[in-house]
Write a structure and sequence with these properties.
20% strand; alpha/beta; nine-stranded mixed beta sheet
């Protein structure tokens, strides 16, 4: 009997029984898990296994997930001691069986045809398909936060031509379909709280043959207060600096990409330093270190095509902390008046 198959847009053949493992970390997600399950189980591509990793939840989220598991054989609920989102994702990878891997956070959304779209671009030569992520704030404002420069499908390769430029980047583990064979033994770094997605993604990218970037929106990130995009400074923020140092080291053999990564590293140093001094009244650990890192890496901002804002803020941060606070105070007042 001939196996059913579909032809990908790149000419590859995708068997219709190829399973996509969808890994969903769950920690106190009672308010979101039901809608998340509905988004996933109503996908137009049905051959999925949804692996919900209960990371020590203390609310009713696990019971809701168990209810879906009892009614749909595609859903599995696994429980573990709380260890954070990276630990939960790693546990999910270890217990997944699909040919492809997709990550979905419990409080986000994916369109009903996301998996079908991602698969349609997959082929024997393509090891990863990166879709567009759309951010939606609580007021309904739509923001393009990942791959916003992608207007048509194109292939990138992790060779000397790769420049780590905005149109080539994707810094999230979400909105991406990974072939299991390139994930291999790569796992999320569990001691990094911010930037772990970018590090994981770039480690896998360098294992790929070819990567397809596509213009279709396949993931919707809900930007709530307290999310990583909107939260103010905490010591966990500094782990992002470590993540980006590691990303830079990944590209040491590609000087063009390395310089652009250093520019992105400088942007993160500027942002963390800004949050640090605006949130804390007294000098704190790592303040001098960040100022030095900004000075040493400021020259690389041009390599990552940073906008003028980062040049200005970086220069001010290197000169005067009180002046920086005054500028941000005035910008805050101006923004509030416009709203």
């Amino acid at each position: 009997m001939q196996e059913a198959s579909i032809e990908g847009k790149e000419g590859g053949i995708i068997r219709e029984d190829d399973v996509v493992s969808v890994i969903v970390p769950l920690y106190n997600g009672e308010l979101y898990i039901e809608k998340c399950m509905q988004f996933l189980l109503n996908q137009t591509y049905p051959k999925i296994e949804v692996i919900v990793i209960d990371d020590g939840s203390e609310d009713g989220g696990r019971e809701i997930a168990n209810r879906y598991s009892a009614s749909d054989s595609r859903v599995r609920v696994l429980s573990k001691v709380n260890g954070g989102v990276s630990s939960a994702r790693n546990y999910g990878i270890d217990n997944s069986t699909g040919k492809y891997i997709l990550f979905v956070d419990v409080d986000d959304q994916i369109p009903s045809n996301s998996i079908e779209i991602l698969l349609s671009y997959m082929s024997d030569k393509i090891d990863m398909v990166i879709g567009k992520i759309e951010g939606i704030e609580t007021n309904g404002k739509i923001l393009g936060i990942r791959s916003e420069e992608i207007h048509k499908p194109h292939i990138i390769e992790p060779d000397e031509s790769y420049g780590f430029l905005p149109k080539e980047q994707h810094l999230s583990a979400c909105g991406v379909l990974y072939k299991r064979k390139v994930v291999k033994n790569i796992r999320f770094c569990e001691d990094i709280c911010i930037g772990e997605d970018a590090l994981f993604h770039n480690e896998i990218f360098l294992q790929c043959n070819k990567v397809m970037m596509i213009p279709e929106v396949v993931y919707i990130y809900l930007m709530r207060e307290g999310s990583a995009f909107k939260s103010s400074y905490s010591p966990k923020r500094f782990t992002e600096i470590d993540a980006w140092n590691r990303i830079c080291n990944l590209y040491r053999n590609n000087y063009r990409a390395y310089k652009a990564a250093r520019g992105e590293y400088c942007v993160r140093c500027i942002n963390v330093y800004k949050q640090m001094i605006l949130s804390c009244k007294n000098p704190i650990d790592n303040e001098a270190y960040l100022r030095n890192e900004i000075k040493d890496n400021y020259k690389y901002l041009k390599n990552c095509r940073a906008n003028t804002k980062w040049y200005l803020i970086g220069k001010v941060e290197c000169i005067s902390k009180p002046l920086l606070k005054m500028i941000y105070y005035l910008l805050h007042i101006s923004k509030n008046r416009q709203e």
